[in-house]
Amino acid sequence: MNDASVSAPLQRGIRSCLDDLDEITTLYVMQVRKLTGYVESVIAERDVHSTAFTTLGLMFRQLGGERLEDELRAHSRAIGRKRVRQGVPLESLLRAVRMDFRFIWQALNDRLPGEADRLSDDVVAIWEVVEAHTTSVQSGYMLELGQVKAELEQEQAFLLRRLLRGGVDDSQLHVQAAEALEIPLVGPYWVAVAHQDAAATFAADVRAVFPAAVCLRLDGVEFAVVAGSSGVGSSGAGSAGVGSTGVGSAGVGSAGVGSTGAESAGLRSTGLRSAGLSVQLALADLQVGVSQSAATLSSLSEMWQLASELAEVAVPGRAALLAQHWPGLVVRRLGSVASSLAADSLRDFTVLPSSERALLVEAVEVYMATGSASKAAGALFCHRNTIMNRLAKFASVTGLDPTVPDDAATIKMVLAAERSAQQE
Fold first, then answer.
1. Lowest mean pLDDT among 150-154, 290-294, 397-401, 403-407
2. How buried is residue 236: exposed, middle or buried, by Cβ count under 10 Å (0-12/13-18/19+)?
3. Tell me: the pLDDT tens digits for 55-83?
4. Cα distances (Å, whole numbers) of residue 333 to 292, 329, 417, 422
5. What is the distance between the alpha carbons of residues 176 and 178, in angstroms, rounded to a whole number?
6. Distance, CA of 330 to CA of 328 (rounded, Å)
7. Quick one: DSSP state of residue 321?
8. CB atoms closer than 10 angstroms to residue 38
């Protein structure tokens, strides 16, 4: 805008407004402070007044014909960026900025008694200046918001790596991580890690049963931390919510995890009292790995590693839990030691015909799963004596008796190691 395009009444009104700029600014600030977002904000009074004084001054001068577009644009963007850091909501900021038009128009009219109607031709010019200012403020706000988000994600990733690296027992780190990641400082905690095929819907699926779960991402891996105070949602495990002191004896309600999912995970809802089992049961139908509980943040890294390993073997519709997958996990961690144990235990077993080996392993596994020869016989549609004979044959060939608990645990590891070797 140049001097030739500015009407004489507008010029007089602008000069008068610039003379009374401090008064106009004070009235403006009083109205701004009534807006939601500015009332609760921590912006000092002198900051709001100084910003408004400069802004109104620039707009009046630009309306008066000075070429201040670039200066006003830079100032407006700086306002937007600054208000992000000060915690002012964008909606409140834009409402305050759009008040500029009303204040400028009113200030000009007040200072042109009897000539206010002659300003009608200048409405568009005033509106354009205010709109340019508003657009630049919003642009600066969004740019800074993106920067803040990037910084937050970078801080979260840094804290997560330190927290999950293991071997770090730093109370200050725990305080920082709890605040930045919005995780309670006091446990217990459970970690759920998504299988890569279930990553897209992981956060929504977890929050459906644990609305307060903290869903995070690190190096492309989706996972969640469920704290002891995170309740189970209405679509989760019914009334068996996870409280800060555990859960009561309530079982799984009809709106909870279906019986098929619970049975497939090897869990029973009757008499459920453990908070850990409640968490695992609520997540039983998701393709995730679920850890045991971590008592403190310093032990969270171990549970994250556990859940990550379990996630690799999770299948659609069934969570992977330590109670069902510990043999494979032990085999992986023992490495060649587990392979050697399997080779020594199965040396004579491997010379049997493959069909016989399959029948013996089937009988052993079903028996160990049920704990009863009669139930195993029913499941395999054979006589109880047939089951007992197969168990005895397995014991004689391997030296490991499935009916002895200590041997049964070793058998699970040995068979897991054998399957792992066959898959390589």
1. 150-154
2. buried
3. 999 999 999 889 999 999 999 999 999 99
4. 17, 6, 11, 17
5. 6
6. 5
7. E
8. 21
Question: What are the tens digits of pLDDT across the range 70-118?
Answer: 999 999 999 999 998 888 888 889 988 988 998 898 888 888 877 767 7
* High-pLDDT (> 70) share of the chain, %: 85
Indicate the pairing of strand 189-194 with strand 214-218. Answer: unpaired
| Distance, CA of 48 to CA of 28 (rounded, Å) | 10
Q: Prior bond to 188 cis, omega within 30? A: yes
**CA angle at 218 for the pair 216 and 221, rounded to the nearest 5°:** 85
CB-facing half-sphere around the CA of 75: CA atoms within 13 A: 18
Hey, what are 286's tokens? 């998701």
Pairing relation of β-strands 221-227 and 288-290? unpaired
Q: Give me the half-sphere count of Cα atoms (radius 13 Å) on the Cβ side of residue 358.
A: 3
Question: In the block, which residue shows the tokens 């391997």?
Answer: 398
Burial class (CB within 10 angstroms; exposed 0-12, middle 13-18, buried 19+) of 333: exposed
Q: What whole-number distance in Å separates Cα of residue 288 and Cα of residue 325? A: 13
Query: Rounded CA gap, 216 and 192, in Å?
Result: 10
Q: Which of 58, 56, 60, 68 is nearest to 10 (CA)?
A: 60
**How far is the C-alpha of 349 from the C-alpha of 184, rounded, in Å?**
52
Burial class of residue 256, CB neighbours in 10 A (0-12, 13-18, 19+) = buried
- Single out the residue of 245, 243, 233, 192 nearest to residue 215, CA to CA: 192
Tokens of 302: 């171990």
- Give the C-alpha separation, 160 to 315, whole Å: 27
Q: Are strands 288-290 and 189-194 parallel, antiparallel or unpaired?
A: antiparallel
Strands 221-227 and 189-194: antiparallel
Contact between residue 386 and residue 362 where contact means Cβ atoms under 8 Å apart: no
pTM, two decimals, is 0.58
| DSSP string computed for 165-224 | HSS---HHHHHHHHHHHT--SS--EEEEEE-GGGTTTHHHHHHHH-TT-EEEEETTEEEE
The 8 Å CB, 24+ separation contacts for 93-97 are 93/37, 93/137, 93/141, 94/134, 94/137, 94/138, 95/35, 96/32, 96/35, 96/38, 97/130, 97/133, 97/134, 97/137
Helices 336-345 and 405-423 cross at an angle (nearest 10°) of: 110
Q: Which residues make Cβ contacts (< 8 Å) with residue 57, sequence separation at least 6?
A: 18, 21
